[in-house]
Amino acid sequence: LHLRRPPTALHAAIHRSMERRAAGADRVLVTTDWQLEDLERRYPGAQVVKIPNGYEEEDFAGFRPDRPAGPFTISHFGMLTLGRSTRPFLAGLARLFERSPELGKRIAAAFIGPRETANEAWVGRFGLGDAVRFEDTLSHEACVRREAESHALLLVKHDDPRYRGLVPGKLFEYIGARRPILALVPEGEAAAIVRRLRRGEVAPLDSAGAIADAIERLYRRHEAGTLERDYDLGPAPGLSRRAAAERLADLLGRMGETR
């Protein structure tokens, strides 16, 4: 378990033994490049196969990727706990409002889901109470509808080396919503996906200036009426869970043929 230190040497030995046994399977299925490369490095000869996560196409059936109404709003959906914080985004938003005060009444942010109280405290410290709101947990159906109706979607990853290789499932859901993504993530696979698909903007968690620039680019394109044209917001069927299931079915079929 790479994200937590085993409590004792005995636990660590048990984990290593379980991992060695798993690595000897006919196929080892992973969801990220980091997992694939790490297992192949530590277990030469392991038959590791990557099938990435995906989004449910049915969740967004019937939604139109039209220009949303209302003030320009960047929305975040999901938990803000265990090191994932609003602070980097709020620092960038405050920096943008400092240099362009007129945008303070034109840009808003919404955070939907469970959170630690420190997040609301940061809003007060940055003086962003008029621009930022928090909402409690919504049903999945309500969340995906709100995602599809948002101007832009905020993705925040942990700023911790242990999490660098993880690709949040929320990223795929945002891709399914077909709205521009503001990804505040360390360099890695999640950032590469957003850039490769031209799905939005990427900025490092530790640079308020870069985050401010990314927010402004999104807003200026919205203001010019080109937000939906300047990013590739088309369907991504290759990143759906249907596509992942088809890859898995093909893998299992080929394995069965070799028995």
Please identify the oligomeric state.
Answer: single chain
Mean pLDDT: 92
How many strands, what sense, and barrel or not for the largest sheet?
Answer: 6 strands, parallel
Strand content: 5-15%
What is the rounded Rg?
A: 20 Å
Could you tell me the number of beta strands? 8
- Name the overall outline: globular
Structural class: alpha/beta
Q: Please give the share of residues in helix.
A: 40-55%
Number of continuous helical runs = 10
Uncertain regions spanning at least 5 consecutive residues = none
**Biggest sheet, spatial arrangement of strands:** 5-4-3-6-7-8
Element-level helix/strand string: HEHEEHEHEHEHEHEHHH
Short description:
The protein is an alpha/beta fold and 259 residues long.
What tags apply to this protein structure?
10 helices; 259 residues; two-stranded parallel sheet; globular; alpha/beta; 6-stranded parallel beta sheet
What features would you describe in this structure?
There is one protein chain. The chain is α/β, with parallel strands linked by helices and 259 residues long. It has ten helices and eight strands. It has helices at 9-23, 33-42, 87-99, 118-125, 140-149, 169-177, 189-196, 208-224, 227-230, 241-257, and strands at residues 28-30, 48-50, 72-77, 107-112, 132-135, 152-156, 181-184, 200-203. Strand 4, helix 4 and strand 5 form a beta-alpha-beta unit. The radius of gyration is 20 Å and the shape is globular. The mean pLDDT is 92.
